[in-house]
């Protein structure tokens, strides 16, 4: 027990724990919709699409969170415009903007003097460098995600499983889609400081995907995803502290490990069940 508690004695580890747990709550809630709707590619693209905004903020000297959120909104809007105004499919427009925004971000960062340091910070985050100000911003973002999810739960649910039915019921699927993309942007922006833009995708998809193997109801899936993400955070920070591994990468990796552990356990359980039933048949 002392070994477990020792890691969280330093103040910076306590801030890292709080910041990462807040990131888990935001990404697990939004990530559930992402997994159910098959929007993983869009989530990945948005996670990279915030880089130009962050890079410009770093270069000019204003709040990176504002830059990240602005870039995420711009990319979400461009995906909608390109896919709706041209014959190009949505996944193609996402791919085009994915590469374009990532390239633009690297070009902007290359203008900074500390190029390598800035790129590393942007892409992989610094969970051990989370500040009290970062946590305050995450609290606000997480509260927004929670409130909007509760208020728009029925439109989101209808949009996820039957877009035409949502339109028939007057739930305005386009508005719900815009709100969902905005929440996706908020969750990514709230998490990039702790996990980084590349690794935030692990939190966004890993725990909800694992939860989808275990439960079916959406609210329960969000809760299970949050619990799984919290386990990855606590264990990941422990490993990072005691073995000197990168905190954000360790957390993201454990989120993926959880999925394959659950998947393997289900496959083994199913094989054993079939073996037991085979003689009776």
Structural features, described:
The chain is mainly α and 281 residues long. The protein has one domain (2-280): Orthogonal Bundle (ABC transporter involved in vitamin B12 uptake, BtuC). The protein is built from 14 helices and no strands. The radius of gyration is 20 Å and the shape is globular. The mean pLDDT is 83.
- Percent helix among the residues? over 70%
As residue ranges, the low-confidence spans are: none
Mean pLDDT score: 83
The number of helices is 14
CATH class identity = Mainly Alpha
Under CATH, the topology is which? ABC transporter involved in vitamin B12 uptake, BtuC
Structural class: mainly alpha
Provide a brief overview of the structure.
The chain is mostly helical and 281 residues long. The chain is 84% helix and 0% strand.
Label this structure with key terms.
about 280 residues, mainly alpha, ABC transporter involved in vitamin B12 uptake, BtuC, 14 helices, about 0% strand, globular
What is this structure's SSE topology?
Elements: H1 2-6, H2 11-37, H3 40-49, H4 51-60, H5 64-85, H6 90-109, H7 115-124, H8 132-151, H9 153-161, H10 163-168, H11 173-195, H12 200-214, H13 218-243, H14 247-280
Helix pairs in contact: 2-8, 2-11, 2-12, 2-13, 3-6, 3-12, 4-5, 4-6, 5-6, 5-11, 7-11, 8-11, 9-11, 12-13, 12-14, 13-14
